[in-house]
Amino acid sequence: MADVTIVGGGTAGLFLARELKTKGISSVVYEEHKELGKPIHDTGILSKNLDEFIDFHKKITLNKVKGARFYSPSGKVVELTRKEDEAYILDRDKLEKELAKGIDVELGKRVENLNFKSKYIIGADGTRSTVAKLAGFPEIETWLLGLQYEIPNEGTHEKDFVELYFGREFSPGFFAWIVPTDKRLRVGLAVNGNAKEFLDKFVKAKLGKVEILETIGGLIPMRWRSQFVKENVALVGDAAGQVKPTTGGGIYIGMASARILASAIAKNDLNFYEAEWYEKIMPELEHGLKIRNFLNMLSDREIDKIFDLLQNEKIRKIILEHGDMDKPSKLVKAVLGNPELLIGYLPFLKYLW
Ligand SMILES: Cc1cc2nc3c(=O)[nH]c(=O)nc-3n(C[C@H](O)[C@H](O)[C@H](O)COP(=O)(O)OP(=O)(O)OC[C@H]3O[C@@H](n4cnc5c(N)ncnc54)[C@H](O)[C@@H]3O)c2cc1C
Q1: Less Cβ around it within 10 Å: N or C end of the chain?
Q2: pLDDT band at residue 168 under the 50/70/90 scheme
Q3: pLDDT band (50, 70, 90) for residue 349
Q4: What CATH number is attached to the domain comprising 233?
Q5: What is the pTM (predicted TM-score) of this model?
Q6: CA 13 to ligand 1: nearest atom
Q7: Could you tell me if the CB of 167 is within 6 A of ligand 1?
């Protein structure tokens, strides 16, 4: 019998199993699908911070991007580019497949109850976590529906940039994206509403008639659960709502959380997981949540005004120096440390109260 039962063979569950193995703790991962990584879970865009957790990104990266082009509701463009590569676009299912090497995974096994004899049971089974329901954890209260098409890149889009589109027309409460892989574009958005209607409208407006090669979708938690440890059961990854509210990215945060959980299991103290998570991870997510709430309160006209302010060279320099997809606190601190930059933002301060 394994020491730890992990329900869900996504990135959080598999990475946890790997971390446990390095500590000499046995685990078994139950995954309901017959193949890891399928259906594809997401866009697979990750900052270089991914290298904190894996040493095989070269094997699974389809493309690397140097920056992003941001589009305002009225079509203003802000480009933020660094000289070096900024993020990886992964050949997505390969991440799960590589993570699972050397791990005990039972495929095609859907878990419906918690009758396991192992010392710990971990729910790494996504936003709609069965483990969370069975163990009686509090609900994830806010989430969005993410939807993405993969289409051929007919040479219309450079491979060096992702494109992010803001505004209520295409993605109220979030943004729409166009992400280039080696030969394709991943085009998607997240909304609290009919995602297909919004995505079809977006694709028609920005790309015209396209051939859809693949469609993926899922719930994206916008806030972590208020509790994710109960006796010998813990949740990790999307199951715990451990996702960045700014971008909806959950792979990096899920792995960072799984690393803490593995240490807690090694210490035989699941409470260490929650305590350490609140100290090390939550502050970044809280910064992200404030940014998300702030953006969501702005009208399209106000978002356009922010784009005007972003033309300021000094602000762009600070963003490029301190911006980090996974750690928004660095940028917030840098901006707050330059009060003269805040003058332009005074009209928006009302939203921070
Ligand atoms: C459209 C979209 C685009 C996204 N893009 C990105 C991105 O570019 N970068 C990023 O970092 N994040 C992105 N995300 C978020 C990212 O997909 C998740 O945060 C990440 O997949 C969470 O990993 P996880 O292992 O916690 O959960 P999941 O990936 O949801 O894995 C859970 C696993 O548990 C299995 N499972 C569920 N219930 C059971 C059960 N009862 N028994 C057995 N197995 C079960 C499921 O089959 C699944 O394999 C995106 C999400 C969406 C919807």
Answers
A1: C
A2: very high
A3: low
A4: 3.50.50.60
A5: 0.94
A6: 25
A7: no
